[in-house]
């Protein structure tokens, strides 16, 4: 097995354990057992549970960011592109909630010390990407402020994912309202 495949196996096992037990209660023995490896074998690829968590968080956030970039870079209306990019962000939270309702907040919460840097970098990249898309369509607006508003709105929707359809429906409606407001105001705040 190649090293990258072995690391993926370990991170997949870590995801399973973290979603099952939470980060705090998961042990390296749990991860090794889930990966079908010895604990010393796992230590050849990750330093400790925290390292596994950081690498896993980075992979999840990078995947959501790549999906958001692909959505922003397509042709279509600003509304459609922003909606699809923010659905990628919301989709990550929905996946975590679906896989682990009891531990989703712990896994990628902004306040977790284990992934704070990764989450901050992800949020900055999302803000800059969304801001650039808004600025291209509405050059006379404070595009980064609009991006922050859209991200705050999306984070608010992530707070209650018990009804899986409602957050996506509300996201689409909210983006439509914000873009309509930009179009109506000509990009200028009133």
TrEMBL record:
Keyword line: DNA-binding, Transcription, Transcription regulation
DNA-binding as a keyword of this entry, yes or no, is yes
Q: What is this protein called?
A: TetR/AcrR family transcriptional regulator
Q: What PROSITE patterns does the entry give?
A: HTH_TETR_2
The HTH tetR-type domain covers which part of the protein?
Answer: 4-64
Please give the superkingdom of this protein's source.
Bacteria
Keyword field contains Lipid biosynthesis: no
Q: Which GO terms describe its molecular function?
A: DNA-binding transcription factor activity; transcription cis-regulatory region binding
| InterPro entries recorded | Homeodomain-like_sf (IPR009057), HTH-type_TetR-like_transc_reg (IPR050109), HTH_TetR (IPR001647)
């Amino acid at each position: 097995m190649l090293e990258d495949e072995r690391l993926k196996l370990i991170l997949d096992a870590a995801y399973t354990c973290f979603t099952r037990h939470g980060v705090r209660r998961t042990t390296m023995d749990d991860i090794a057992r889930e990966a079908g490896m010895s604990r010393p074998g796992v230590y050849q690829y990750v330093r400790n549970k925290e390292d596994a968590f950081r690498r896993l968080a980075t992979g999840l956030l990078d995947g959501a960011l790549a999906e958001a970039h692909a959505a922003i870079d397509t042709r279509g209306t600003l509304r459609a592109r922003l909606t699809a990019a923010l659905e990628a962000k919301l989709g990550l939270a929905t996946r975590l909630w679906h896989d682990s309702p009891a531990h989703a907040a712990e896994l990628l919460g902004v306040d977790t010390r284990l992934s704070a840097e990764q989450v901050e970098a992800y949020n900055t990249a999302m803000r800059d990407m969304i801001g650039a898309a808004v600025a291209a369509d509405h050059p006379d607006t404070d595009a980064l402020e609009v991006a922050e508003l859209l991200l705050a709105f999306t984070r608010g929707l992530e707070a209650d994912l018990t009804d899986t359809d409602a957050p996506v429906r509300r996201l689409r409606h909210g983006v439509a309202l914000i873009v309509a407001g930009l179009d109506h105001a000509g990009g200028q705040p009133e």
